[in-house]
Design a protein that fits this description.
The protein is an alpha/beta fold. It has helices at about 15-25, 50-60, 75-80, 95-105, 120-125, 150-160, 180-185, 205-215, and strands spanning about 5-10, 30-40, 45, 65-70, 85-90, 110-115, 135, 170-175, 190-195. The protein starts with a strand and ends with a helix.
Length: about 220
């Protein structure tokens, strides 16, 4: 199945968001990735429910929400009502992450966990019975343009191995370069979140850039 490419909308040009979404769709993007940050779980603020509602209203493609916030269970309903198709939560962010994942499932939304660079495979292993997606962070969450942390590859391989026993798909977020896509797409990474490393701020058409990325997905 084709590798899924998602646009990290925190990197988009907000001077004309509707045009950005249209150009990304015309270029062949598969989904839109919305990063929600509360300034507590991560050190920055970024995007919110109104951003999600706006993006949801402008596209029929899937919209993923990555909640980098404390106590996500307390705020789930707002993001669900705003039209999220996928919700990623960080296991460290809630008292009982299994309850949070179950609430996402009960709402008919695809449940996912986001795994920080400092979070081990072993510490989230039991949650893989509930999660359908694992978003492996190759940088510390909170800002764009960070350098890849090289030890992430070993952990990523553990999640790829776990697919044989669990009903999960593995995704990559952070410092997603062409050579990383070329290496890990054939290994089974289902999708990549694209930001400033290969997609945004390049002064080239999105379609041209996305076609180039897809050549590395083979």
């Amino acid at each position: 199945m084709q590798t899924q490419l998602s646009a990290s909308m925190m990197c988009a040009n907000y001077a004309n968001l509707e045009k950005e979404i249209r150009l990304l769709e015309e270029g062949g993007i598969d989904s839109f990735h919305v990063d929600i940050m509360d300034g507590q779980f991560v050190p920055y603020f970024c995007m919110g429910i109104q951003d999600l509602k706006c993006i949801r209203s402008l596209t029929k493609k899937p919209v993923e929400v990555h909640l980098m916030i404390k106590r996500p269970l307390s705020y789930l309903n707002g993001f669900i009502k705003a039209g999220a198709d996928v919700i990623y939560v960080h296991p460290e962010a809630d008292y009982h992450p299994a309850s949070t994942l179950q609430a996402i499932i009960d709402a008919g939304v695809t449940p996912g966990i986001a795994v920080n660079p400092g979070t081990s495979f072993e510490s989230v292993n039991e949650l893989l019975y509930l999660a359908k997606r694992v978003l492996v962070m190759s940088v510390n969450p909170g800002s764009a343009g960070q350098a890849f942390l090289p030890y992430i590859g070993q952990k990523l391989n553990k999640f790829l191995e776990a697919r044989r026993e669990r009903d999960i798909e593995v995704y990559w977020d952070g410092a997603c370069s062409l050579n990383k896509i070329q290496t890990y797409a054939p290994k089974g990474v289902k999708g990549f979140v694209l930001g400033t490393t290969v997609l945004f701020d390049k002064n080239r058409p999105y379609g041209e850039l996305l076609n180039e990325v897809r050549k590395y997905c083979v």
